[in-house]
Amino acid sequence: MDIIVAGAGIVGVSCAIWLQRAGHSVTLVDRNGPGTGTSHGNAGVLAAGGVVPVTTPGLLVKAPGMLLSPDAPLFLRWAYLPKLLPFLARYLSHATDAHVRHYARAMGTLLHDSVDQHVALAAGTPAEKFIGREDYCFGYASRQAFDADAYAWGIRRESGVKFEVMDGAAYAAEDPIFGEAFGTVVRCRDHGRISDPGAYVRALAQHFVDEGGTLHITEITDVEVSDGEVTSLKTPEGALTADRIVFALGPWSKRIAHKLGVKVPFESERGYHIELLNPSAMPMNPVMVAAGKFVLTPMDGRIRAAGVVEFGGLDSGPSRAPFDLLRRQVRALLPQVEHDGIVEWMGHRPAPADSLPLIGANGAGGRSYSAFGHQHVGLTGGAKTGRIIADLITGRQPNIDLTPFDPQKHVARQA
Fold it and tell me: Start and end of every FAD dependent oxidoreductase domain (predicted)?
């Protein structure tokens, strides 16, 4: 079949490669080029244990205080609040134990083999060199701080995530860059790291082109829909048509998805990172700094500190306060590390209200497919999502229950 994949982040590129390997003729469409958005700016962790959503019990009580604190990793552009309120109500309604367990069961099936999925995706390509099998660690200032996070670790344990709780001094003996910052460190096994996420996605996209795929840099301005099925994509150069169309536009998916009848409550969750260039020392593993809810990751020639949640829409530029918070936190954590400069970046995560990505056909006719909404785990789940979409389009039944990810689930619920 002739297939268009709209969006060239990790999810879209993965879809394109697996569809190409299945024998289809694939065109990858993106307005800026592969790996230039969220897939460039993430924390670079293959977080196989990412089975706990942001919306955990107690968030509703904590959120107001976090929004008012300059040292909390939650920000809001207050002028955007009127637009945000309907989504926010739905989002916070999922801060229940029942939903956390539902999310953990679903995401566990999608993420548990993430490193192996990326190895299979990149096999025989120049992108292989970016994949590592490092542990993913969580650093807590004290044992009491770790104990306070017992709910999340219980969910991970029930989901089969393998981890080891270590004394901070024992971990520092292996990875001395953090000194005495952590009293307790949790070391998650069977995880991994991408040493340069943007370069990784670009290498995969170049492999796709080298194998005969078409990369088309243009903006999708609209879609044509007939009888509930998409018939073409509108671009400044004209209409693009195909037998099947996959939408992997990340945070820019909402407007088109709603035209296709995918009525998912959806927002852009703005994320930030700073990078220390040519640092004088490197951490051994990626570490989630629990007190600040940001991840410190060793990357090629730099250390990246990525995190922060800000709600402010797609159109506004970056806010200063999240950058300042990350700078303060990194300076306090790594006071002895010298570097040649700091780079700042802000991007958008696609955030459905229930935090579950949309993976599957948008209608009974199977003309178009959704592959977006992975929130904090787009890199982690991107490779497997691409394989699932390729299986669905090719007529093979994926070995995973896709019901929690059904793009039509919200329509059915409203009916």
Answer: 2-392
Q: How far apart are CA 381 and CA 39, in angstroms?
A: 12
The rounded distance, in Å, linking the Cα atoms of 31 and 37 is 10
What are the structural domains, with CATH classification, of the chain? 2-414 (3.50.50.60)
Q: Please, what are the averages of pLDDT over each run of 10 residues along the chain (415 residues)?
A: 96 98 97 88 95 91 76 83 89 95 98 98 97 97 97 97 97 95 97 97 98 96 84 92 94 78 83 96 97 95 93 89 95 96 93 94 89 94 98 95 90 46
Are 371 and 358 in contact, with CB atoms under 8 Å apart?
yes
Q: Are 379 and 286 in contact (CB under 8 A)?
A: no
Amino acid at 176: P
Map tokens 């019901």 to a residue: 403
Backbone angles phi, psi at 271, to 5 degrees: -120, 155
Task: Report how far apart, in Å, the C-alpha atoms of 394 and of each of 213, 244, 369 are.
Answer: 17, 11, 12
Taking the C-alpha atoms of residue 273 and residue 399, their distance in angstroms, rounded to an integer, is 35
Cβ contact 329:289 at 8 Å: yes
Number of other CB atoms surrounding residue 92 within 10 Å: 14
Residue 354's SS3 state is coil
Q: E strands, 97-202, where?
A: 131-132, 136-140, 163-167, 184-188, 192-194
Alpha helices in 232-290 (DSSP H): 254-259
Structure tokens at 70: 């300059």
Closest CA to 13 of 230, 197, 143, 187: 197
According to DSSP, the residues that pair with 305 across neighbouring strands are: 274, 296
Query: Taking a C-beta distance cutoff of 8 angstroms, is the pair 39, 17 a contact?
Result: no
Q: Which of 373, 371, 361 is nearest to 408 (CA)?
A: 361
**Residue 185: count of CB within 10 angstroms of its CB:** 27
Phi/psi of residue 307, nearest 5 degrees = 170, -150
Contact 237, 29 (CB under 8 A): no
Cα–Cα dist 40/197, whole Å: 5
Q: What pTM value is reported for the model? A: 0.94
Asked if 406 and 354 count as a contact pair (C-beta separation under 8 A), the reply is: no
CB 275, CB 343: distance < 8 Å? yes
